[in-house]
């Protein structure tokens, strides 16, 4: 039951990235440099939620939020006022790596 709820939360969170991120209000919602911290927190959290919900091998658990982050950056190419950047993806990578180190250390 708990893993199903966590999985639903991860899917809803991922969907909201694309739905809310496509709204005009998302432009400049989190100003620099705080946007990098937001990326790290969002994708680090996604790693933890997917990892707990699905008990994935580490390589898959790491890849999943990073692929979602890449898809989010690609999605921004098509949105007025949004700017995809490698720096945003790298901030997400940092968040995922830190979350993985903390999560795996607890196990």
Describe the protein in words:
It is a single chain. 22% of the residues are buried. This protein starts with a helix and ends with a helix. It has helices at residues 2-21, 34-54, 58-76, 86-106. The longest helix is centred in the middle third of the chain and has 21 residues, at 34-54. Helices cover 76% and strands 0% of the residues. The protein is built from 4 helices and no strands. By secondary structure, it is mainly α. α1 runs parallel beside α3, α2 (34-54) crosses α3 (58-76) and α3 packs antiparallel against α4.
Break the fold down into its secondary structure elements and pairings.
Blueprint: H1 2-21, H2 34-54, H3 58-76, H4 86-106
Helix pairs in contact: 1-2, 1-3, 2-3, 2-4, 3-4
Give the CA-CA distance, first to last residue: 21 Å
Share in helix: over 70%
This entry's quaternary arrangement is single chain
List the total number of helices.
4
Shape annotation: globular
- Using the CA coordinates, give the radius of gyration: 14 Å
Number of strands: 0
Q: Return the structural class.
A: mainly alpha
| SSE string | HHHH
Low-confidence stretches: none
Question: DSSP strand (E) fraction?
Answer: under 5%
Strand count, sense and closure of the main sheet? none
Average predicted local confidence, pLDDT: 92
Keywords, separated by commas or semicolons:
4 helices; mainly alpha; 0% strand; 107 residues; globular
Structure at a glance:
The chain is mainly alpha-helical and 107 residues long.
